[in-house]
């Protein structure tokens, strides 16, 4: 199960995630992200992973795609911070 909330804070679209970013929830996040970002022209996107308990390989791939398209991340907990740092390092290598 994954709960996705959207809100705008000081010109930033924040996608708050709670639960597991795995299986069918990966596609749901992508639909939500594309829909929300598409309705707000050129607004930065931040994904809050602080309440995510698990991220599978497809979830990591989606986060990498979101990063390539300019999304930023906030995370807490060792595992989520490690995943975000890995995504950021992989994007730096590609530049």
Question: Secondary structure elements and their pairing?
Answer:
Elements: E1 2-9, E2 12-21, H1 24-39, E3 45-55, H2 57-68, E4 72-74, H3 78-94
Parallel strand pairs: 2-3, 3-4
Antiparallel strand pairs: 1-2
Helix pairs in contact: 2-3
How would you summarize what this structure contains?
The chain is an alpha/beta fold. The chain is built from three helices and four strands; from the N terminus they run ββαβαβα.
Q: How would you describe what is shown here?
A:
- The termini are far apart.
- This protein has helices spanning 24-39, 57-68, 78-94; strands spanning 2-9, 12-21, 45-55, 72-74.
- Helix content is 47%, strand content 34%.
- It has one domain: STAS domain (Transcription Regulator spoIIAA, 2-Layer Sandwich), CATH 3.30.750.24.
- It has 95 residues and is α/β, with parallel strands linked by helices.
- The protein contains 3 helices and 4 strands, in the order ββαβαβα.
- The mean pLDDT is 90.
CATH architecture: 2-Layer Sandwich
- The tally of structural domains comes to 1
- If you compute it from the alpha carbons, what radius of gyration comes out, rounded to the nearest whole angstrom? 12 Å
- Strand residue content: 25-35%
Helicity range: 40-55%
CATH superfamily: STAS domain
The separation of the N and C termini measures: 34 Å
Shape: globular
- Low-confidence parts: none
In DSSP terms (H or I, runs of 4 or more residues), the helix count works out at 3
Average pLDDT confidence is 90
Major sheet characteristics = 4 strands, mixed
CATH class, please?
Alpha Beta
Number of strands: 4
Fold-level CATH name: Transcription Regulator spoIIAA
> What strand order characterises the main sheet?
1-2-3-4
Which secondary-structure class do the elements indicate?
alpha/beta
Could you state the order of secondary-structure elements as H and E? EEHEHEH
């Amino acid at each position: 199960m994954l709960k996705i909330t959207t809100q705008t804070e000081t010109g930033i679209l924040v996608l708050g995630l709670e639960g597991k970013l795995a299986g069918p929830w990966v596609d749901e996040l992508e639909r939500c992200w594309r829909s929300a970002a598409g309705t707000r022209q050129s607004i930065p996107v931040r994904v809050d992973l602080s309440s995510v308990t698990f991220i599978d390989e497809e979830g990591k791939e989606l986060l990498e795609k979101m990063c390539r398209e300019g999304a930023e991340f906030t995370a807490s907990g060792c595992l989520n911070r490690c995943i975000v740092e890995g995504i950021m390092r992989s994007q730096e290598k590609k530049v």
